[in-house]
Amino acid sequence: MLILCCPTTGERIDGELPEIPEIETVRRQLEQCVQGRIIDTVMINREKSLNVAADNFIDTITGQQIIKVRRRAKQIILTLSNAHSLVVHFMLEGYVRIFYSWETVSGRPSVVFTLNSGDKMAFFKLTLGYIHLMPAVNFADIPELSGLGPEPLSPEFTPEEFLNLLSKRKGMIKPLLMDQAFLAGIGNVYSNETLFCSRIRPERKAAALTTTERINLYHCIRAILTRAIELGGVNEDKFASDDTLTGGFEPHLQVAYRTGLPCYVCRTSIETKRVGGRNAFYCPVCQR
């Protein structure tokens, strides 16, 4: 769950979706902790988070090995040894926490998996999020992953592909970056940050961007997302009791949720306004 505080008021700002850096951080941590483990038992406290009956869910995954932990856009896919997948989407508030074998599960988890290591993988606040059981392992065969745009960090996502995508669009650039059918996995925080990096105003029309601006934006998208992953994104909820990575990118935010504070480049106050129904944060001097 992404929770930031407004620097000018100190109020918590909730309700942002986790984006690629946050989900990729979780994926990498899960890969280290649960990949190769066997699901011994399952406890379900919120059946509405599932897409099948609880008994069916438990019977299908109990005793199965987690053979792969992958990510597509904002979703995590746990591939099981019986050619099924668990598709996890945290949505607004959800998160996963590992409790080691010597720890007691705290809080009110929606779903808990006990692994053969003795560790527990607990999913919290899946009020809008879900864990869907799918009889498939290929992304193309999982309906929850259909209709998504390219992954901005994949090797196949080249400058040429980005220019081609932009050539077909005319709307404002910030909402476009957040359109999951255009690019997969970018939301409000990183659309703001990449537009500041490329010095582009959030309300600019995609069709009006110069080729140089488009290329700069491409490189900023990849650079910002890569750096944010390295530093653990901006999530507040820790993955485990010994997690020192998660949330490490928050001090490096340049414009997001810094309304009224000085730009790190020119010292002009950061401004905010509604663009495409979402809050856009930008520097009125650096961005044009």
Automatic annotation (TrEMBL):
Entries under InterPro entries matching the protein: FPG_cat, FPG_Glyclase, FPG_N, H2TH_FPG, Ribosomal_uS13-like_H2TH, Znf_DNA_glyclase/AP_lyase, Znf_FPG/IleRS
Presence of the UniProt keyword DNA-binding in the record: yes
EC number(s) recorded for this UniProt protein: 3.2.2.23, 4.2.99.18
Catalytic activity from the UniProt record: 2'-deoxyribonucleotide-(2'-deoxyribose 5'-phosphate)-2'-deoxyribonucleotide-DNA = a 3'-end 2'-deoxyribonucleotide-(2,3-dehydro-2,3-deoxyribose 5'-phosphate)-DNA + a 5'-end 5'-phospho-2'-deoxyribonucleoside-DNA + H(+); Hydrolysis of DNA containing ring-opened 7-methylguanine residues, releasing 2,6-diamino-4-hydroxy-5-(N-methyl)formamidopyrimidine
Keyword Zinc carried by entry: yes
Keyword vocabulary terms for this entry: DNA damage, DNA repair, DNA-binding, Glycosidase, Hydrolase, Lyase, Metal-binding, Multifunctional enzyme, Zinc, Zinc-finger
UniProt-listed SMART domains: Fapy_DNA_glyco, H2TH
All residue ranges annotated as the Formamidopyrimidine-DNA glycosylase catalytic domain in the record: 18-114
FPG-type domain segment(s): 254-288
SUPFAM superfamilies reported in the protein's UniProt record: Glucocorticoid receptor-like (DNA-binding domain), N-terminal domain of MutM-like DNA repair proteins, S13-like H2TH domain
Lineage top rank: taxon: Bacteria
Cofactor(s) this protein cannot do without: Zn(2+)
GO molecular function, one term: oxidized purine nucleobase lesion DNA N-glycosylase activity
Assembly: Monomer.
Annotated PANTHER family: FORMAMIDOPYRIMIDINE-DNA GLYCOSYLASE (PTHR22993)
Protein family according to the UniProt entry: Belongs to the FPG family.
Protein name: Formamidopyrimidine-DNA glycosylase
Upper classification of the organism: Bacteria, Bacillati, Bacillota, Negativicutes, Selenomonadales
Gene name, Swiss-Prot/TrEMBL: mutM_2
